[in-house]
UniProtKB/TrEMBL annotation, chain A:
UniProt key word Kinase: yes
Protein name: 6-phosphofructo-2-kinase/fructose-2, 6-bisphosphatase 4-like isoform X6
Residue ranges of domain 6-phosphofructo-2-kinase in the record: 2-215
Gene: LOC122130788
GO cellular component, one term: cytosol
Keyword match Kinase: yes
Automatic annotation (TrEMBL), chain B:
Listed GO CC annotations: 6-phosphofructo-2-kinase/fructose-2,6-biphosphatase complex
GO molecular function: 6-phosphofructo-2-kinase activity; ATP binding; fructose-2,6-bisphosphate 2-phosphatase activity
Domain 6-phosphofructo-2-kinase, first and last residues per copy: 21-239
Record text on subunit structure and interactions: Homodimer.
Record: residues binding substrate: R246, H247, G248, E249, S250, E251, L252, N253, R296
Organism classification: Eukaryota, Metazoa, Chordata, Craniata, Vertebrata
Function: Synthesis and degradation of fructose 2,6-bisphosphate.
SMART domains registered for this protein in UniProt: PGAM (SM00855)
Organism whose genome encodes this protein: Clupea harengus
One GO-annotated biological process of the protein: fructose metabolic process
Family as reported in the entry's similarity comment: In the C-terminal section; belongs to the phosphoglycerate mutase family.
Name of the protein described by the UniProt record: 6-phosphofructo-2-kinase/fructose-2, 6-bisphosphatase-like isoform X6
Gene name of the encoded protein: LOC105900165
Keywords per UniProt: ATP-binding, Hydrolase, Kinase, Multifunctional enzyme, Nucleotide-binding, Phosphoprotein, Transferase
Length: 435, 459
């Protein structure tokens, strides 16, 4: 994408969502294909100072503490250098308070010396309700407070924040006018964006401006079992089987019982997802981007036929299922690119039910659960099963709900032998049963 | 694209009623309200934003209050009209604003508009209150775009590019015009109250500082505002040139077949060579070259001897079941589809393929990146080039699929004033014509000859 690697530097008092943003941004960038890694200086500190005693460690006149913290920051920067220079990383997220101009100047100099671009992400928030919720969600469960009760932990953490407040120098309109940064105020009510340098920074800004922390749930499921599914054929645009229609009904009941406020329902433009949504009796929106992966010349074939007619292609696909593109078709990698606007809109929305397809669902799930390109094409997304995703702390809670309507299995595992020279049986070993 | 009310009937299949990466408008239309002193780029932004929104499928229209003023006060005398103590003029100006607002209402209620850009200085809190009131009474959302600039060079360039040629200054010489315009700006400065981050913190707005070096974004309410912000943050005014061309003539072009993934014909290779020479002769600093993932564009770029980037999004429109067919074969095998396509070429989707409408959606990230970039050469395909050209030249959905994009011709686009200058450069290498005009008879009942009347010659 870009030539220079980019160093993203968080800025802000404790409990302002820096780590939340770091992890989420890292997940997003990796998903769209930009190798990204976060470096949390607090983690380095915990490894260095095995046991956390109290907020006193962070007192500005604790010289011993300051020395250790400075060393940890240096160690982290060293690892950043290694990741971006030697390990093929494209973006590194340097997650720490970085609240003084002095600390930020050190980082900027480091970046210059190594040929990295720098982009600051500052989170500013004075809403006590937000800060409290933050502490409850992620601080109480921190390794620092495993041996404290809730009140002790909260009290100590508040004092910890105080330690930083006096020396906090927010990014300044005038003094920092030559830096590239985004200042996020009050969890996204307002943004200040300064000197976006390139494409990746522009995408980062767009992403950060679309995410929110309002509690909500995302429901992912596939269409009901289709006639093609039953026959073991891939792709196509067939309608639902009887069992598929049954699933659609049960899905409607399930959704009703969940009693979700203001639920948006999205489908693809293929018959089977539309027919599934029709059974819900609520308005739904059709996205072409949610259409199943285009299997090109293999559309509507059974795996047995693919092995028969395109044995080479079949093997190549098993060798690199993520990047393999069906002739005249798509790859999972292509799918991710086409799904990016869907993810962006999912981030903007609140409660959404997405009725889609196997490969599409794998891509979306990989985004939410931070799965790698290697794992993604083999994620299990069985028919007639709803995945309920609820953001919690730094990640996503997943509940899998099978709606009790039988369906064929459409999941084909990676076979042992992926060589082009393999026998037909070896290729077809993992094909699930069908009519 | 602004859609004409009486589109021909297209047989309903399971197809999209809505392109959902474009905001769904079961709810309120949006008023986009410009704010800023004269010569801060408000009209430039208004027109560009409107062009973009229409292209992605959001019916949008600009309401330029200065235009209303020119219609009301036939002859512009001088800056005194804009003096804050000129009561007569104030009355007229207020009436013009109200008239424009009323037309916004008509556009939303009767013409299916989704977004209206209210292009005026709107520099006082009082004026903005009037607009907010009007919007509130009618259930419209409001999003302000304020352009703040104090760089005298930028302002001078602005005046040169668009003010000197304004109808207001038709009978003035350059120095007179500039002097008068600067005094005009002073008239506004006296009463200018910028959007206030405290007092206006409940409003939705973006402030653009110094042509984009800094932005302040407040309370983005919905998808369309988010897209508007993203777009505004990606455009720039640095002079540059965009070159659009198709791949060299391909083997399939020669035999009159559509789609496919064939290589270049001998003449196509010649074109690639000529293109390389042409590009060198243009001496373009830092030129980026983009192609699709298809052989014919890649082979064309290869001959340039420079680095190029491949975009899958630039692939030709997928003709689905009609891939690799000649028009004669399409008529023979899919006569109904062929007719439906002629009835609504923009929205028609080939079975298992794409429509022009789909293409636009897929090309949106390309346009966004083109906006970010400077000098770019895009080597693409007929339908793709039509879509890109329609964006730059503000062509409607009706015109887009019939834009002429012949082989072996480079279109050189240079932004100028409020639009785009186009130079068509033929590289003098013969090629087949691949342009099929809309035939006179588009009825399903038509004879094959009528359908094939406009098919260009081929082997």
């Amino acid at each position: 994408m870009t030539n220079c690697p980019t160093l993203i530097v968080t800025v802000g008092l404790p409990a302002r969502g820096k780590t939340y943003i770091s992890k989420k941004l890292t997940r997003y960038l990796n998903w769209i294909g930009v190798p990204t890694k976060e470096f949390n200086v607090g983690q380095y500190r915990r490894e260095c100072v095995k046991i956390y005693k109290s907020f006193e460690f962070f007192s500005p006149d604790n010289e011993e503490g300051l020395k250790i913290r400075k060393q940890c920051a240096s160690a982290a920067l060293n690892d950043v250098r290694q990741y971006l220079t030697d390990e093929g990383g494209q973006v590194a997220v340097f997650d720490a308070t970085n609240t003084t101009r002095e600390r930020r100047d050190t980082i900027t100099r480091f970046a210059e010396q190594n040929g990295f671009k720098v982009f600051f992400v500052e989170s500013v928030c004075e809403d006590p309700a937000v800060i409290n919720e933050n502490i409850v969600q992620v601080k109480l469960g921190s390794p620092d407070y495993t041996h404290c009760n809730t009140d002790e932990a909260v009290e100590d953490f508040m004092k910890r924040i105080k330690c930083y407040e006096n020396s906090y120098q927010t990014l300044d309109e005038v003094l920092d006018r030559d830096l590239s940064y985004i200042k996020i105020i009050d969890v996204g009510r307002r943004y200040l964006v300064n000197r976006v340098q390139d494409h990746i920074q522009s995408r980062i800004v767009y992403y950060l401006m679309n995410i929110h922390i309002t509690p909500r749930s995302i429901y992912l499921c596939r269409h009901g079992e289709s006639d093609m599914n039953v026959k073991g054929r891939i792709g196509g645009d067939s309608g639902l089987s009887l069992r598929g229609k049954d699933f659609a009904r049960r899905l409607g009941q399930f959704i009703q019982k969940q009693d979700i406020s203001d639920l948006k329902v999205w489908t693809s433009q293929m018959k089977r997802t539309i027919q599934t949504a029709e059974g819900l009796n609520v308005p739904y929106e059709q996205w072409k981007a949610l259409n199943e992966i285009d299997a090109g010349v293999c559309e509507e074939m059974m795996y047995e036929e693919i092995q028969d007619h395109h044995p080479l292609e079949f093997a190549l696909r098993d060798q690199d299922k993520y990047r393999y593109r069906y002739p005249k078709g798509e790859s999972y990698e292509d799918l991710v690119q086409r799904l990016e606007p869907v993810i962006m809109e999912l981030e903007r929305q609140e409660n959404v039910l997405v009725i889609c397809h196997q490969a599409v669902m794998r891509c979306l799930l990989a985004y939410f659960l931070d799965k790698s390109a290697e794992e993604l094409p083999y994620l299990k997304c069985p028919l007639h099963t709803v995945l309920k995703l609820t953001p919690v702390a730094y990640g996503c809670k997943v509940e899998s709900i099978f709606l009790n309507v039988d369906a064929v299995n459409t999941h084909r595992d990676r076979p042992e032998n992926v060589e082009v020279s393999r026998m037909a049986e070896e290729a077809l070993y993992t094909v699930p049963a069908h009519q | 694209m602004a859609q004409t009310p009486n589109k021909p009937q297209v047989r309903k299949r399971f197809r999209c009623d809505s392109i959902a990466s474009v905001p769904q408008f079961t709810n309120s239309p949006t008023m986009i309200v410009m704010v800023g002193l004269p010569a801060r780029g408000k009209t430039y932004i208004s027109k560009k934003l409107t062009r973009y929104l229409n292209w992605i499928g959001v019916p949008t229209k600009v309401f330029n209050v200065g235009q209303y003023r020119r219609d009301a006060v036939r002859t512009y005398k001088n800056f005194e009209f804009f003096r804050p103590d000129n009561e007569e003029a104030m009355k007229i100006r207020k009436a013009c604003a109200r008239s424009a607002l009323s037309d916004v209402g008509t556009y939303f209620m009767l013409e299916h508009g989704q977004a209206a850009v209210f292009d005026a200085t709107n520099t006082t809190r009082e004026r903005r209150e009037i607009i907010l009131s009007y919007a509130k009474d009618n259930g419209y959302k409001v999003f302000f775009i304020e352009s703040i600039c104090d760089d005298p060079e930028i302002i001078a360039e602005n005046i040169k590019q668009v003010k000197l040629s304004s109808p207001d200054y038709i009978d003035c010489d350059k120095e007179e015009a500039v002097a008068d315009f600067l005094k005009r700006i002073e008239c506004y400065k006296v009463t200018y109250v910028p959007l206030d981050d405290d007092k206006d913190s409940h409003l939705s707005y973006i402030k653009i500082f110094n042509v984009g070096s800094r932005y302040l974004v407040n309370r983005v309410q919905d998808h369309i505002q988010s897209r508007i912000v993203y777009y505004l943050m990606n455009i720039h005014v640095t002079p540059r040139t965009i070159y659009l061309c198709r791949h060299g003539e391909s083997e399939l072009n020669l035999v009159g077949r559509i789609g496919g993934d064939s290589g270049l014909s001998p003449r196509g290779s010649q074109f690639a060579g000529a293109l390389g020479k042409y590009i060198k002769s243009q001496s373009i600093p830092d030129l980026k070259v983009w192609t699709s993932h298809m052989k014919r564009t890649i082979q064309t770029a290869e001959a340039l001897g420079v680095a190029y980037e491949q975009w899958k999004a630039l692939n030709e429109i997928d003709a689905g079941v009609c891939e690799d067919l000649t028009y004669e074969e399409i008529q023979a095998n899919y006569p109904e589809e062929f007719a439906l396509r002629d009835q609504d070429k923009y929205r028609y989707r080939y079975p298992k393929g794409e429509s022009y409408e789909d293409l636009v959606q897929r090309l949106e990230p390309v346009i966004m990146e083109l906006e970010r970039q400077e000098n770019v050469l895009v080597v693409c395909h007929q339908a793709v080039m039509r879509c890109l050209l329609a964006y730059f030249l503000d062509k409607s959905a009706e015109e887009l699929p019939y834009l002429k994009c012949p082989l072996h011709t480079v279109l050189k686009l240079t932004p100028v004033a409020y639009g785009c200058k186009v130079e068509s450069v033929s590289l003098n290498i013969e090629a087949v014509n691949t342009h099929r005009d809309r035939p006179a008879n588009v009825e399903v009942s038509r004879e094959p000859e009528e359908a094939l009347l406009t098919v260009p010659d081929h082997i």
